[in-house]
Amino acid sequence: MKKNQFIPKSTFLKNKYSFLYLLLLYFINIAALTAVEDTESQKYAEIEENLNRMSDMEAVTYLAKLQKIEPKNPHVLFRIGWYMQKREDDDSAEKYYKKALSYAPNYSPALINTGNIYKRRKDFDKAEFYYKKAVQASPESGSGYYNLGTLYIELSRKKEAEEALAKCVELSPENISARLNIASVYISLFNENREKENLVTAKKYLLDANRIDKKYAHVYYSLGVIYEMENKPTTALEYYKEAVRYYNSHHPMKKKAMKKIHYLSLVIK
Length: 269
Fold this sequence. Notes:
Blueprint: H1 9-52, H2 56-69, H3 74-86, H4 90-103, H5 108-120, H6 124-137, H7 143-154, H8 158-171, H9 176-193, H10 196-212, H11 217-229, H12 233-246, H13 252-268
Helix pairs in contact: 2-3, 3-4, 4-5, 5-6, 5-7, 6-7, 7-8, 7-9, 8-9, 9-10, 9-11, 10-11, 11-12, 12-13
C-alpha cells in the first residue's frame, strides 16, 4: 500500500463485521462446550447416585443396560471395569478401562486403575506410565501423584516418592494416606542416614494428619513409632494406646500396638 493511501470505508466495515461474526461464533462454541460438559457432569452424577442405591449385582445389570444405550460412554465403561476389578477379575477390568480410554484418552480414573492393575502384576514400568499419564491429564488432582508416590515407595525410589507425595499433599491437604506415606519415606531416610531432621519432618506430617482426623488409628501408631525412636517411651506409650482404641478388633495392627504397649509398660517401670 502506498504512503497516505487509506483503506476504503466499505472494506473496513466488511472486515470489522467479519471479525465480530467470528468472535460471536467463538463465544457460541464456548457456551456449547460448557453446556455439553455440564450435561455430562450431571449425567455422571446421576449414574453415581443410582449406583449408590444398588447392590453389586443390580449395579452391573444397570450398567450393562446403559452400555447398550451409550456404548461409547467412558464413565459407564469405567464403572463396569471397576466392578470387574472389585470381583478380582483384573483381565476383564483392564479391557473395560482401556475401552474407556479409547474414547476418552485423558480419563484419569481409568488411567489410575489401569496403573493399579499393572502394579499388582508387578509390571512397574507400565504402572508408572499410566500414573504419569493420569498426572498429565489432571495436574490439578492429587490422585495421580498419590499413586505415583506409593509406587516409588515400593520401588525404594525415596526421593521421587517424597516429591510425588508432597505434591499430592499440596493438592489434596485432607489426604491422610498421603501424609502417612510421606512420613514413612522420611522415617526410612532416618533409618539410613540417622539425620534427626527426617524424623522432625515425618512427625510434622503425622501431627497434621492427626489434626485432620482424630480417630485415624494408624496415625497414632506411626507417631508412637517416632516417639519410641526419639527415646520418649512415655509419649510413645500414649500414642500406642490411642492406636489400640481406634483400630477395629480384627485389624492386624491392633495386636502389634498391644505388644508395643506391653513392652513399653515394662520399660517405663
